[in-house]
Description:
Glucose Permease (Domain IIA)
Amino acid sequence: MEIDSGAVFALPLKSFVLTSGYGPRTHPVTGEHGQFHYGIDLMAFYEPVYSVLEGKVLNVGSGLVTGNFVRIKSGAFLLTYGHLSLALVTPGQQVYVGEGVAVSGESGRVTGPHLHFGVKYLNQSINPLSFLSELNNNLKH
């Protein structure tokens, strides 16, 4: 994964509390064991959600599992924000680091309100915690 060393970023929420990590897990709703979680879940109770990187809104929509979502394309990265109560952006819109793009919620298959944050690099899912850590490390150099 190659991240521009001058990249500026923001966290997706003002407070960052992990409630479910990336990788295999027992699904909290279905109870299915070993189901792969392609993102991380963060504690959020109807709070503003911020653009992690500058980019363009690829799509805004709704699905049975992810619920209401916003997807933002930033270079080779695709960032997904899910389980939203409200999208504040529209497809094709340019967004900037730290800009409010949505309000977290509990849409889709959930046990309660939170934010699902997923990252793809060159169309391959990657661990969002590693991604954020790499952004933070590059900022320090």
